[in-house]
Every structure is written in structure tokens, then in C-alpha cells.
Specification:
- This protein is an all-alpha fold.
- It has 2 helices and no strands.
């Protein structure tokens, strides 16, 4: 075997080893990313479960605010009618 062929085989081996190491590094980084995404997903699900009851509370609050708005509107209307009668 000639020296050129040996050098070529050595360079190909070094190139394959470098690519293998690079791919191993990428695989390890992806494992870290998968772990982090799992934690984020868990956190988002926990937040979603804890905020589910808020919809029921907000519906009740909205109804209460609507009732207060109606009561204040009626009060203002009755006060306005009282002022008009007093002015007449």
C-alpha cells in the first residue's frame, strides 16, 4: 500500500471520528433539551390545572359586577327623577 493511500485512510478515519464525536455531542445536547422541555411541559400543565377554577370565579364576579352596575344605574335614575320633581 502506498503512502498516499495510508494518509488518505488515516484522514478519512479522523474525519469519521470527528463526525461521530460531533453527533454524540449533538445527541447529548438534544437530551438536555428534551429534559428541559419535559420540565416546561410539566409546569405549563400545572399552571393550566391551577387556573382552571378561575373561569367559574370570574363568571360569578362578572354577574356580581353586572348586578352592581344595574343597581347603580337604577339609583342614579331614581336620584335624577327626584331632582327633576324637586325642581318642578
Amino acid at each position: 500500500m502506498s503512502a498516499v493511500a495510508i494518509v488518505t485512510l488515516v484522514l478519512v478515519g479522523v474525519l469519521i471520528a470527528a463526525l461521530a464525536l460531533y453527533l454524540i455531542r449533538v445527541a447529548l445536547m438534544l437530551r438536555t433539551v428534551i429534559d428541559t422541555l419535559g420540565k416546561v411541559t410539566f409546569g405549563v400543565r400545572a399552571i393550566a390545572l391551577r387556573t382552571e377554577p378561575i373561569e367559574e370565579l370570574l363568571t360569578g364576579i362578572h354577574e356580581d359586577v353586572a348586578a352592581m352596575d344595574q343597581a347603580l344605574t337604577d339609583l342614579l335614575a331614581s336620584k335624577g327623577a327626584g331632582h327633576q320633581e324637586a325642581a318642578s
